[in-house]
Each structure stands twice: as structure tokens, then as C-alpha cells.
């Protein structure tokens, strides 16, 4: 039977005027631009928050509207590891920012003064970095770290222009643990920059070094390595996957760490970053190496881990039939259906989106979700007090009813049709539109 996606595309009256592939590429490009804008806003907020914490002051007041960051952006945006001052994850920090009146925008005069001071100190810092004294090197890196933490727009390009990135990469293999940590922190923040700035770090040979850190025993360095690799993968996914054995490295960490912690939360985010975007046939074999780690992480009871892993699975399922089969073969469908009722809205939304992509597949793939009891869950979600949840439930149901006769009959017997009819008259326009399908 023709799937609902094809029906919607064919129903478009100007389908012969516009080329589907071209429109898809334009949408994807626009999404990337939006993610980059949201990423910059998120980075500004997080860095400024750390500056306030570092200074132990709260004399700047302004409301931050975090609603501009949706679940997809928070789950997948390129972000910095500034939370490494402690065990606070980026999502937890964002929640703290939402609950305070601390401004994400520092005083411009003060910021300009600090930037000017940094320029004056830069030559001295470069000299210290290139010296043979570990104490001088460490002092220079500490100063740079403070500047990165305080500035709304960190001086990434200025650091690159000083040609110290190769030296920073060398520090990653230093015998001095503190020097390795400071260098890893700075490099991981540099790769939150633009594509050409990330390329400088890659050219300095950082990728294999980060892979080595990932296979080490220092949890903080593993955390930095995961953040860096996740940020680099947003532009150079194939390069990251072809350097070392990322999937097995994740599995080894999972075998050593049994409780949710910063490393596992970062790993979940990195996996979602790797899975995001259209996956080519050449990339798919490398992507599959990450699937065992994904299947393990979905069993954790940590909201942040679940949110990112559900998005990773959603990105995978939003592809070819082979990709949907790969998600199903992981045995995660019962988990996904259960997470559709999760108390945390972000986790619930991500799980709904993933299930929606799976039931957009063929009848056999849809049946797997049906066998997990999804119709009983949908019966509850169709009367949710949240419009977005009702819309997703309708979308999932519309794909299921595009299946075979037995599947349609099952929907009728469960008693979902009266609930959908009720939405046609007692809901918002977008929900009514989905209910029509």
C-alpha cells in the first residue's frame, strides 16, 4: 500500500514545478543555518554563565528566553565543554540559566576592555606556551582558559592566528596531567568554532590524539575527547569515523562505567551528533559500528542520556529502509514505545519522533511497533493536554493506518477513531490537519 509520505507528496498541487531533491537540500541547508545560530546563542549563554560563576557575582540582570532553543537544537547543537569546571552537564546548566535572572550578555565595555587586555598579553602568552618551562606553559593555558570562559565571543581566531594550535595538540600527550587537561579544554572549545577553524585543529593532528585519549583511563580527558569528536563530527563525520575505532572505544567505556556520569552523557550527545544528517552509503558501514553503544545507552534512566540517544535513533530511522531495519534489529522498539510516555518532555518528544520515522517504513517495520503496544500508548497521547504531543500522535497514527488491512482493523478495534474525530472539532488547526490524515 502507498505510504502516507508518498500520498502527501503526490497531493501537492505544484509537485511537477518543484524538484523534491532540491527542496530537501534547501531545507537541510536552512536547518543547518538555524542550528548554527542557536548554537552561537547557546554558547554565548553558557560562557557568560560560567563567567558569572567564576567571578562569584550576580549584579547583571536580564531575562533569557530559552524557548528559542528547541529539543533538536539542544540535543544536537555544537557546544563547548565549559561545564568541565564540575560535573554539571550542558543541559543542566541551561536549566540553571533558565531559572535565574543572570544575563547571558556581558557588559560590552567590560568585555572590550578584557579583549584589549588579552591582545596585549597574547605575545607574552605565546612565548610562554612555546617555552620549555611547564610552569610557564600551564600559567599561559590557565589565562587563556579564563578568557574563553568570560568572553561571550571567545578569541578562537586570535589563538589560531598565533599558530599555537599544533603546540596545544602536543600538550595533549604531555606527561603533566594538568597540562593535558588545560590543553584539551582549550582545543575542545576551539572546535566549537567555524568549519575552517575546526580544520586547523584537524590539520594539527588532533583527531588521532583524541582517539588515544578516548582509549585511555582518565575520565576527564575522555570527556574532553568525546566533546571534541562530537563537535568535529558535525562537519567532518566521515573523517572522525575513519580515525580509530570510535564504536568499540565507546563500548569499552560503557563496560567500565556502570552509572550515569558526565562521560556517558557526553558520549550520548556525541553519538547523536554523529548520526545527524543524511547518511551516505559510504558512511553507513562506519555508522553501524556505533549502534551497539547506542543500544546500551538507551537502557539508562538518565534523562539527558535518553534524550540524546532517542534523537540519535530518530536520525538513523529518518533514512533508508536499511537504516530503519538497523534500528529495529537493535531491539530498542519496546524502549522507544515506553519512552513515548516519559515524564520529561524532551525525552518524550524525541521518542515520538523516532517512532514516527519507523512507522513511515514498510508494513513489516510498522508491525514491529504495533507489537510493542503502541496503540495503547497513542490512546493516551491523543488526549494529552499538550498540542505538540497530540500532533505527533496523529502523525504516527496516520502512518499506521496507511498500512495493511489488519493494521487498520487493529486501530479501529482499539477505539482510536472516535478520539481522532474529536480532535477534528476540538483542537488547534495544526492538530486538526494531522487528524485529517
TrEMBL record:
GO terms for cellular component: cytoplasm. InterPro entries: ARM-like (IPR011989), ARM-type_fold (IPR016024), Armadillo (IPR000225), Importin-a_IBB (IPR002652), Importin_alpha (IPR024931). The keyword Metal-binding does not apply. One of its GO terms (biological process) is protein import into nucleus. GO terms for molecular function: nuclear import signal receptor activity. SMART domains: ARM. ARM repeats lie at residues 163-205, 205-235. Keywords: Protein transport, Repeat, Transport. Residues 1-56 form the IBB domain. It holds the Pfam family IBB. Belongs to the importin alpha family. This is 11196_t:CDS:1. It comes from Acaulospora morrowiae.
Amino acid at each position: 500500500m502507498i505510504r502516507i509520505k508518498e500520498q502527501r507528496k503526490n497531493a501537492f498541487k505544484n509537485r511537477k514545478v518543484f524538484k523534491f531533491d532540491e527542496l530537501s537540500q534547501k531545507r537541510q541547508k536552512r536547518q543547518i543555518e538555524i542550528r548554527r545560530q542557536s548554537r552561537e546563542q547557546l554558547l554565548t549563554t553558557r560562557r557568560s554563565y560560567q563567567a558569572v560563576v567564576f567571578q562569584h557575582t550576580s549584579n547583571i540582570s536580564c531575562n533569557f528566553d530559552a524557548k528559542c532553543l528547541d529539543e533538536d537544537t539542544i540535543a544536537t547543537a555544537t557546544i563547548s565543554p565549559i561545564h568541565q569546571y564540575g560535573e554539571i552537564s550542558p543541559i543542566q546548566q541551561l536549566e540553571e540559566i533558565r531559572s535565574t535572572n543572570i544575563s547571558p550578555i556581558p557588559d560590552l565595555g567590560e568585555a572590550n576592555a578584557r579583549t584589549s587586555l588579552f591582545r596585549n598579553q597574547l605575545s607574552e602568552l605565546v612565548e610562554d606556551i612555546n617555552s620549555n618551562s611547564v610552569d610557564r606553559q600551564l600559567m599561559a593555558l590557565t589565562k587563556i582558559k579564563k578568557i574563553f570562559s568570560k568572553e561571550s565571543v571567545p578569541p578562537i581566531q586570535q589563538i589560531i592566528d598565533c599558530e599555537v594550535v599544533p603546540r596545544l595538540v602536543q600538550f595533549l600527550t604531555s606527561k603533566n596531567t594538568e597540562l593535558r587537561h588545560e590543553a584539551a579544554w582549550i582545543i575542545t572549545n576551539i572546535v566549537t568554532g567555524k568549519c575552517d577553524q575546526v580544520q586547523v585543529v584537524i590539520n594539527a593532528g588532533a583527531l588521532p590524539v583524541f582517539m588515544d585519549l578516548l582509549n585511555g583511563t582518565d575520565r576527564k580527558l575522555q570527556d574532553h575527547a568525546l566533546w571534541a569528536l562530537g563537535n568535529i563530527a558535525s562537519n567532518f563525520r566521515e573523517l572522525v569515523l575513519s580515525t580509530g575505532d570510535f564504536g568499540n572505544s565507546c563500548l569499552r567505556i560503557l563496560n567500565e562505567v556502570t552509572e550515569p556520569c558526565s562521560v556517558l552523557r557526553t558520549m550520548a550527545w556525541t553519538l547523536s551528533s554523529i548520526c545527524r544528517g543524511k547518511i551516505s552509503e559510504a558512511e553507513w558501514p562506519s555508522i553501524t559500528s556505533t549502534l551497539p553503544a547506542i543500544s546500551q545507552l538507551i537502557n539508562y534512566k538518565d534523562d539527558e542520556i535518553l534524550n540524546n540517544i532517542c534523537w540519535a535513533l530518530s536520525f538513523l530511522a529518518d533514512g533508508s529502509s536499511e537504516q530503519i531495519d538497523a534500528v529495529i534489529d537493535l531491539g530498542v522498539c519496546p524502549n522507544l514505545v515506553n519512552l513515548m510516555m516519559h515524564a520529561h518532555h524532551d525525552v518524550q518528544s524525541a521518542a515520538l519522533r523516532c517512532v514516527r520515522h519507523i512507522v513511515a517504513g514498510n508494513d513489516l517495520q510498522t508491525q514491529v511497533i504495533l507489537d510493542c503496544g503502541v496503540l495503547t500508548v497513542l490512546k493516551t497521547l491523543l488526549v494529552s493536554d499538550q498540542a505538540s504531543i497530540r500532533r505527533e500522535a496523529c502523525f504516527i497514527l496516520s502512518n499506521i493506518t496507511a498500512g495493511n488491512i489488519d493494521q487498520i482493523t487493529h486501530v479501529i478495534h482499539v477505539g482510536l477513531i472516535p478520539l481522532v474525530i474529536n480532535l477534528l472539532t476540538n483542537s488547534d488547526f495544526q492538530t486538526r490537519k494531522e487528524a485529517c490524515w
